[in-house]
């Protein structure tokens, strides 16, 4: 009779969860500093997307969705490294389209160039924090 060792998958999942939680804390903290920096540079403090209750959930969603995409590529691609070297920057640039539309339309009150630049920098922060966490998680 063959036995199955279930401890390794649990350890892998625990490692992934720990790294994702750490990435989330770091990314939210850095995005908070970006938001405060944008306000210090002249963005209106009442611009809601630069407030913690708004950007923190979006930061968390970005990390989780990014990890799901990362895992899908790693599991399905014959050359995941090559795919991710192209896909990650493309997705980062595409993620900024709503920010550029916000700048063009001003559909949220108190929109300014500095505020939108802050939002766009937040995308870079999430990517810069999440990608190393994904790599370390062996996802």
| Helix percentage range | over 70%
Compute the number of helices.
Answer: 5
What gap, in angstroms, lies between the N and C termini? Answer: 31 Å
User: What is the domain tally?
Assistant: 1
The total count of strands amounts to 0
The helix/strand order is HHHHH
| Mean of pLDDT | 93
Structural class: mainly alpha
Sheet of most strands: none
Low-confidence stretches: none
Form type: globular
Strand content: under 5%
Explain what you see:
This protein is mainly α and 139 residues long. It has one domain. The protein is 78% helix and 0% strand. It is built from five helices and no strands.
Short synopsis of the structure:
This protein has about 140 residues and is mostly helical. Helices cover about 80% and strands about 0% of the residues.
Q: Which keywords apply here?
A:
139 residues
Topology readout:
Elements: H1 7-40, H2 52-76, H3 80-95, H4 97-105, H5 113-136
